[in-house]
From TrEMBL:
This is Proline reductase for pyrrolysine biosynthesis. It holds the Pfam family PylD_N. The lineage of its organism: Archaea, Methanobacteriati, Methanobacteriota, Stenosarchaea group, Methanomicrobia. Signal peptide: none annotated. SUPFAM superfamilies: NAD(P)-binding Rossmann-fold domains. It comes from the Archaea. Residues 10-118 form the Pyrrolysine biosynthesis protein PylD N-terminal domain.
Length: 259
């Protein structure tokens, strides 16, 4: 998995506010509203223990602090433990945490220890970014382009198929493209034979993955992918509604999914 850097997380509160205002413009709902509608849950100030994890590449500067900001932003009662790892988990539970948030290099989980529900960041991120894209108020058709069909992109594509969209998908990994075609019934997208879309969902770890030929004026590009899928120049040229944020949207999707 591509790991975040401390730089990605600078001023997460401002990044969240900006993302929230784009989501409102695109869908008519704020991020909380999308989560409520998606999961049918709403938070009642749940206590969330955030446990730093030192294994593998270790602690990412700003990661736990950003999760703290994110929990507060969305109305949860978050706290970061003083100790990391097993001692941190123990500390979180001792201090009344109802939900645990913790991540190593492979898995970022939310575990509601009261009701037993558990969420993984990758599918929860794919599902909410796809859901936001699917709610675009000015969409001109039910056609959606999905770029990247990996651990985030596949569940996002599944969400769009389930909602009745005509999903075109592309991944340079032929195995993953084949899996999405046979399991989800998506239409393989051929970059050499492009068409325009008003809704695009992207989930890759690469920059500039969106060819100019697929962009329609004022299209929505909903993308958790880091780095960003589109250049500033193309974004401005087509007046793209860009939903992109490094951690908070995926995290709140996890939290709502375990309530
Ligand atoms: P993954 O490695 O499972 O999937 C990425 C897929 O993108 C691969 O299958 C790869 O073949 C494909 N790909 C590469 N270049 C492409 C191109 N030009 N066009 C189409 N597909 C292309 O990675 P995963 O876990 O799905 O993560 C995707 C991205 O999302 C990463 O950058 C990750 O850091 C980011 N992410 C962001 C989150 C957020 O909250 N913003 C949360 C979780 C992940
Ligand atoms: C959750 C993000 C989204 C993109 N990549 C994922 C990532 O960076 N995962 C690693 C998280 C490690 C956190 C570290 C800490 O500070 O506790 N162990
Ligand atoms: Mg996010």
């Amino acid at each position: 998995m591509a790991l975040l850097t401390p730089n990605d997380l600078i001023n997460i509160n401002k990044q969240l506010q900006e993302a929230d205002s784009v989501v409102k413009r695109v869908t008519g709902l704020d991020i909380k509203g999308v989560c409520q509608s998606l999961y049918g849950t709403s938070p009642s100030s749940k206590k969330v223990g955030i446990v730093p994890v030192t294994s593998g590449n270790g602690i990412i500067g700003n990661f736990s602090a950003s999760l703290h900001v994110i929990t507060q932003y969305f109305g949860f009662d978050g706290f970061v433990t003083d100790m990391p790892d097993v001692s941190g988990y123990y500390e979180a539970v001792q201090n009344g945490a109802e939900i645990i948030l913790m991540a190593d290099d492979h898995t970022f989980l939310a575990h509601n220890i009261k009701n037993g529900k558990m969420a993984n960041n990758q599918p929860c991120t794919g599902i909410i970014y796809a859901e936001i894209a699917s709610r675009y108020l000015k969409a001109d058709s039910k056609d959606v382009l999905v770029m990247g069909l990996g651990k985030v992109g596949f569940p996002g594509a599944a969400q769009l198929v389930q909602k009745g969209f005509r999903v075109y998908g592309y991944d340079p990994d032929a195995r993953l493209l084949k899996r999405a075609v046979s399991n989800l019934g998506i239409i393989p997208f051929d970059p050499a034979n492009p068409k325009k879309f008003s809704i695009i969902f992207e989930a890759t770890p690469c920059a500039n993955t969106i060819p100019e030929a697929v962009l329609s004026e004022n299209c929505v590009l909903s993308t958790p992918g880091i780095p960003c899928a589109i250049s500033e120049e193309l974004k401005n040229k087509y007046d793209v509604q860009l939903v992109a944020e490094p951690l908070g949207i995926g995290t709140v999707s996890m939290l709502y999914s375990v309530l």
